[in-house]
Specification:
This protein is 77% helix and 0% strand. The protein is mainly alpha-helical.
């Protein structure tokens, strides 16, 4: 795996030496870097709380494990085009899950406000991540990778 030598990686791609496992390593590193880069502490430390930290750790772990699960499912089939499949199939999977999760998130938001909000929290101008949000986000991410893995397996099994 090259992290600095771009020309050598380009040459490996030209000569067909980059394996599915190598591609998986790159997309895994990219996914983990993006998950960690989304940590609110990096851009808004004024409202960072323990739930933000928990969310970052869970989101990163679930993303890494989910991507590994997708890789294994693709490998069980034809073990080809992993990155292309993840990127292409991942978009409609994401769209479908967002549409499904919107009503759920709206209901959870109302339930959370009715059950957990106190008058002091309502008056506060500082937004803070809540446990319910951490759970919702990570259930969504888990569902995304699970559904994506199912679809990757379908494609790779049919091409094997």
């Amino acid at each position: 795996m090259y992290l600095w030598k771009v020309d050598e990686l380009v040459n490996d791609f030209r000569s067909g030496c980059v394996t599915q496992l190598e591609e998986f390593k790159y997309i895994l590193l990219f996914t983990v870097a993006m998950a960690l880069g989304a940590d609110p502490m990096l851009y808004d430390s004024t409202s960072y709380n323990k739930y933000d930290f928990i969310n970052t750790i869970l989101f990163t772990c679930i993303s890494a494990i989910g991507l590994f699960y997708c890789y294994k499912k693709n490998k069980e089939g034809d073990d080809k085009e992993f990155v292309v499949r993840v990127m292409c199939i991942g978009i409609p999977v994401l769209v479908r899950l967002v549409i499904i999760f919107i009503p759920v998130l709206i209901l959870l938001s109302f339930a959370e406000e009715m059950v957990f909000e106190t008058p002091m929290e309502v008056e506060s101008d500082v937004y803070e991540t809540t446990l319910m949000e951490v759970i919702a986000v990570n259930v969504f991410v888990t569902a995304y990778y699970y559904y994506l893995a199912i679809k990757l397996y379908c494609v790779s099994k049919n091409n094997a």
